[in-house]
Every structure is written in C-alpha cells, then in structure tokens.
C-alpha cells in the first residue's frame, strides 16, 4: 500500500489516540496487544476514523486537525 493512513481510536465513544501508519493491521495489532505505551492498559479499542493521504505532510496536518477537534469536544 502506498500512502499514509490517519486513524483515530476510541473507547466507550471517547477519543483515545490518533496515529499515522502505512500498515493499519500492524498498528492496530500493536495497540490491541499492549505494545504501544499510550494504549497498553486500554481494552475494547475501536476504530473511529481512517483517512488515506498521499504524503506524510498531508497526514500529519490532518492528524493535528483531528486531535484539535477531539480535544475541543472534550473541553
């Protein structure tokens, strides 16, 4: 797969984590198996959003927008 995927994980309908990957299956496996320190103690993580971008710059920009959007909802 070419390009970059921006993904958002949630637990109990709450924003938990956003990330960028080129291999979504591998990234999700790391999060669900506890290999990622930010999500290792969480259970039942669900994918909230997946978006594909051609460049890393586009993906980083979108990830920042999504994080700001979800932080604003939490405030």
> In percent, how helical is the residue content?
25-40%
Number of strands: 3
Largest sheet: 3 strands, antiparallel
**Net shape:** globular
| Unreliable segments of 5+ consecutive residues | none
- Oligomeric state as shown: single chain
Order of helices and strands: EEHEH
Q: What name is given to the CATH topology?
A: GIY-YIG endonuclease
As a percent range, the share of strand residues is 25-35%
**Strand-pairing-aware structural class:** alpha+beta
Report on the structure:
The chain is an alpha+beta fold. It has one domain: GIY-YIG endonuclease (3-Layer(aba) Sandwich). The protein has helices at residues 24-33, 56-74; strands at residues 4-11, 14-21, 46-53. It has a 3-stranded antiparallel beta sheet, with helices on one face. A hairpin with a 2-residue loop joins strand 1 and strand 2.
Write the layout of secondary structure elements.
Elements: E1 4-11, E2 14-21, H1 24-33, E3 46-53, H2 56-74
Antiparallel strand pairs: 1-2, 1-3
Key features?
single chain; 75 residues; alpha+beta; GIY-YIG endonuclease; 2 helices; 32% strand
Précis, in short:
This protein is α+β, with helices and mostly antiparallel strands.
């Amino acid at each position: 797969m070419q390009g970059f995927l921006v993904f958002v994980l949630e637990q109990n309908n709450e924003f938990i984590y956003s990330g960028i990957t080129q291999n979504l299956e591998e990234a999700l496996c790391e999060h669900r198996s506890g290999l990622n320190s930010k999500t290792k103690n969480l259970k039942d993580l669900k994918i909230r959003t997946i978006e594909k971008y051609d460049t890393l710059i586009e993906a980083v920009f979108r990830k920042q927008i999504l994080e700001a959007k979800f932080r604003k909802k939490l405030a």
